[in-house]
């Protein structure tokens, strides 16, 4: 027979335990979810089965927590886009990202989704065919739901995404924070610190980012298009990368939208550590979204251009667009993983799934916070109903009788008594055997409220589901007493496998080495106080920039056939100087573009993007968009080499790294063959040759300057122009590269010369008294001085 003490305990324990976890002053790793996006407004897709919230809630407790998170996310949003000014946030950024990933997986328990084709989590072992089927099913699902929407509209139904012009304006303004960073998760995927074996994969991923930015054409830049769309409806916001943008006065207070925005930015910050998650998130986010179809239909009804949404419907298509590219990236990445063991194959797939789920959970307004709030509400309702039976209970919790706890709850049942609930739950945190943290199956409470339990029927089916999920999400008591974010990280890695980075592991470790890891902010050599030479002063005069004479070819004696030992020694030393400079210099413009999509909305940065595209081996920009053409082009080159029995060591448009590897292979310049920049650059200063040490030191200077693009932007552009002279030298030296490779480099040089000329014209017309133009010239002169000093 059930005693009164048992009944009282059964009713109160879950409420107490929930509130202990929910009302901690520390940051709760389980309350960082991806939430509201523009996709949230779409109707449930046909065939979906979702557990809706048991009852809508607007509790003050929930709203206070959402407000606190809103402020945190806004702060992170601004600082990540200006990372060089806030490098101290990096540990917190990593913790926040892990919390988001963990909660994404947790949301699949709270709110499982079933669609035709199944969930990506159903694919326990990677199967490219099943993944294709999943994407096809999602495309069909969106199509069916849109057809149903059209039928409702034809039957006289009104707009469903928003009801009037003001509603459309609010929708567009609310969506600005994530549309201003659209594609950011891919921004750093193809950096110079990317392992060389993965550069084929990351090149294709970064292409999507480039196309989101219009391939350097401002008219096609998606951020510019969205900003223009906002202005067309009378919304003129500050720059998306400014502190003013996150100010409360703008009324952009949708916590979920900021959460999604921060998730996109956080993924971008650690490209080598979270590449699988980035690729998974990218697949979901580049897949069809019903909200785009609805916006494309409804915007014209209120006199608003739908082109921004029509563009995304077209460009994200799963045949030749970004969705197809994202799927191909995953297949290619896992192929490399299997062939190289760069990380665990199973671990890589599980993390791709987690990244996809992170994007998927962004469809829902509800988050774990909302479900937990419902949990505490329905448990306290039951506690108040059972109030009268608590008076005879002899059970004591935290030194107090259950009746005193119940009386406190009853007297405050019309208020939000957070402190009392927190205290109560803190006392009941370790009330075993009723609740075992992380193990609902072992918890007596769950057994008692399910079939054959003494309290079966006191909780509904959905309430039991929420209760089970919540108990399973509780951290160990010891973890909760420490830093909760550390527990979130551990919990995530427990779900997907141990942490593995695609970075090479060095002994001793080099995780704080800017040549190995991104991002790292080493000390920076000052350049803005350099004493200008007379030639620099003359060159800095507006309209008089002239590059120096070409570097003399005889500086590099790599031609084969020499028998003179002195020539051989000089040749080898020059090779050891050339190699670190060549492999480091692609870094110069990378962060100028990758810092923030919003920063690419200026003419100068858009021109830098086109220079980068040339350096990274992309086809020249045209009036259209490449999408899958780039990948098809590479595949055709591979097939030709395979048919001829050759290794695919050359393409018609190699990037600077590939050309560097060709030089290394052709002349055995580095043994063994380098697998990453860290193999080329020893830790700064570790060389027995003074000239080589100086070259390595300057290479590290380049990397350090490049980590601070906001401060050094035009200086970096000038340095890059100086290294174009080095590229001209290499292209003109017959034995460094073969004929086809030199031809490819020459075509790259020609594109870059045109691009730099455009940059110089823009700098001369900047209207800042020649300041930026002068910085460009300082960068150029500094680079040329160093190159000539090191190669002499």
UniProtKB/TrEMBL annotation:
Q: Give me the ranges of the annotated region Disordered.
A: 399-419, 630-651
Q: Where is the composition biased (Low complexity)?
A: 401-411
One Pfam entry name: Haem_oxygenas_2
Note the superkingdom of the native organism: Eukaryota
InterPro entries reported for this sequence: Haem_Oase-like_multi-hlx
Q: What is this protein called?
A: Heme oxygenase-like protein
Which species is the source of this protein?
Coniochaeta ligniaria NRRL 30616
